[in-house]
């Protein structure tokens, strides 16, 4: 068997094997257009990478054999026939077609991967935004609950103050009753007690105004 025949057979065998592997590689690589998580879960990613390495190695071997056949076509001592030259040229064209097809398939795969990664990044950004928005709403709700609690505390203090005023008013009324009895029995003290009563009423009004103003300022601060 001549060197040409051996190289010719090797070239046809590699072409057939490369065509089969390239078809499998293209079919498996097309799954990348689907969800990246499904690819990784099913192990398709590793099989695709292994096939890519295999087709690249086959293409490299096919190129080496084509180079050897091209060298035979330039042998001046033993020039090839026209049929051999046509076969060599045909093998070279097939090799170039395979090279372009593999390059095109790898480009499509890379584009699909980039799109998948971009969509994954967008989904992650959306999830992060939703989580941040939920945290903000929870924090705002906590602030509102705290404001309500503070308002309840202030109202409770206001009610307690009002009750204390009522108790003091009852005490003062009892004192007034006793003082009225004393006044009726002690002439001349009426003017003094009247002045005391007037000052006490004024002090009560002042204290009441101050407390009311304080409660109003607290409510304005909260709301």
TrEMBL record:
Positions in coiled-coil regions: 48-115
Protein's cellular compartments: Golgi apparatus membrane
MF (Gene Ontology): SNAP receptor activity
InterPro entries linked: Golgi_SNAP_su1 (IPR023601)
Keywords annotated in UniProt: Coiled coil, ER-Golgi transport, Golgi apparatus, Membrane, Protein transport, Transmembrane, Transmembrane helix, Transport
Transmembrane segments: 204-222
Entry keyword Cell wall biogenesis/degradation: no
Top-level division of the source organism's lineage: Eukaryota
Pfam family, one: V-SNARE_C
GO cellular component, one term: Golgi membrane
Topological category with respect to the lipid bilayer: Single-pass type IV membrane protein
GO BP terms in the entry: endoplasmic reticulum to Golgi vesicle-mediated transport; inter-Golgi cisterna vesicle-mediated transport; protein transport; vesicle fusion
Membrane among keywords: yes
Quaternary context: Component of several multiprotein Golgi SNARE complexes.
Function noted in UniProt: Involved in transport from the ER to the Golgi apparatus as well as in intra-Golgi transport. It belongs to a super-family of proteins called t-SNAREs or soluble NSF (N-ethylmaleimide-sensitive factor) attachment protein receptor.
Protein family (similarity comment): Belongs to the GOSR1 family.
The protein's name: Golgi SNAP receptor complex member 1
Species assigned in the record: Sparassis crispa
